[in-house]
Amino acid sequence: MKIKNRKIGRLPEVIEELILTVLVSVFAFVFASGIGYYEWVPFGGVYIGLIVFTICMLWFGYRRVLESRKIYSEQKKAEKALRESEEKYRLLADNSRDIICLHSADSRYVYLSPSCSMVLGYDPEELIGTDPWELVHPDDLKPMQEIAGKKTLEGKSALMAYRIRKKSGDYIWVESVSQSIIGDEGEIIGFVTSSRDITERIKVIDELRSSERLLCNVIDASPNCIFIKDKEGRYLLANKAIADLYGTVPENMIGKTDSYFAERGAMRTEECGLFREQDLQVIKSRKPLYISEEKITTKEGAVRWFQTTKIPISHMDDPDCVLGVAVDITERKGIKDELKEAYLELKEIQDQLIQTEKLAALGRFASSIAHEIKNPLGTILGGIEFLERKIKVDDKDIDIAIEKIKDTILKADYTMMSLLKFARPSELKRERISPNVLVENAASLLRYEISLNNIRIEHDFGRGIFIDVDRNLIEQVIFNILINAVEAMPDGGTIVVKTSRRVEPKLSPDKPFCAIEITDTGEGIPEENLSRLFEPFFTTKKEMKGTGLGLPTSKTITQNHGGDIFIESEYGKGTTVKIILPLAEGGR
Ligand code: ADP
Ligand code: MG
Question: Which fold has domain 224-328?
Fold first, then answer.
């Protein structure tokens, strides 16, 4: 509380008031004399002057008494307030858990609040007159003195945290606020400080720091990429794994974005754009995002695969952050892909085995019934030819019927022959021959069908290629494939036959083979039929046209030669059949 210092009966004011009184009385005297009562003058004027003077005196006296009483009561009130506040502050100081000290200008203790004994173990009297710097930990002394000196010069209060020695010799952490006390002449006459024991707080901070360090170590030790980004895409946290990936250290990532690293070639721009889209999606939807597979291409161009989870989180008062954990699945993915490949291979082998087993069963069956069918067929055919010669009727209908019976018998015989060829492969009579010769021979057998169906046949023959094969059987294979191509183009088209010397990875990774590729522009094969083409009796041809034995027989023959047949087709566009055969010794 601020009190104005006023003393009762200040001399200049009294003189002012007296002069004013005399002036008013003289004026009253002159006024009274001037209004015409000459007979009263000087007595009448004097009386009036005296009366006015007395009234003024009484008035001023009354006012002074009132004022004195007011000032007196104000002073009493101020003194009381001062006393009360002093008591209050002393009460505060005496009861405070903080140590409140008064220091002389040379810093020595002048007063210490009683809490000093509780905090430091010293009674206040023990410390009065001593130098507080002696109690400060040697490591904290210099920085503290610097801060204190600077703040004193600036006339500001200084806030310092330091260690101070207790009477027991142990150090505790205190936080002090110090303010200089300035005398009337502006000089420093002392200091007042308030010190608080913050040992517990420092301990908590230390524990927090150490658990933070521990957490950082754990995060850094993780092989997974762990990071936090804000809504601008800036890294707020990045562990060693992600920093390694970006070719830097974790500290270097803080505050930077993926685009920053993309601009410096540490990652691909398109990948960085994808990450940003995901982050924004998480922030916007406030829902976690699971990415089962995503790739990151390193600076060196190596591709690594990750399984990433992104979660919306609040970090350091920012509600729009993304926490990401990316697990490197490159190895796992490699194994998975290999497993998938191995499974498919196994499945193919299994299918082949089933097929082989089926074929073997069919072969056994075909052999057992071959004679039973072929002999009666021969007898029927002989009988029909005999009847044909004997019946000399000029009846067209009979002729047609006989021709039809003969055709059917021949077809049945051909089917039986194919079945036997397919089921019980005969011994191969190998000879060294050019595949081009075999193609020309087979094609010449189809000359009639080719021209009838308006089909053009083109050759793209490789030179100097030789194979060591049973020419009749391979000619038969080429014929089977060519007739299929012709049958697939009822409205005409083109057949291209290409022979070449090439590596066929499906058979051997580096050994060259002879390839006879027959491509047509026919109807093509629907995808669902592709896996069934080599099944015996699988045919899509109507009535008696197809036997479904052409392709299985051809495959068996080719495989018996150490080769194979592969078919590629696009429905509605055409088909390519590749006959692969081993090259003859010195095949080129
Ligand atoms: P078939 O010719 O007696 O039907 P194949 O074993 O020769 O028996 O052929 C089986 C099936 O494969 C055919 O019915 C046909 O559906 C299909 N096919 C074979 N080659 C071709 C081709 N070049 N174009 C279209 N389909 C074909
Ligand atoms: Mg056929």
Answer: Beta-Lactamase (3.30.450)
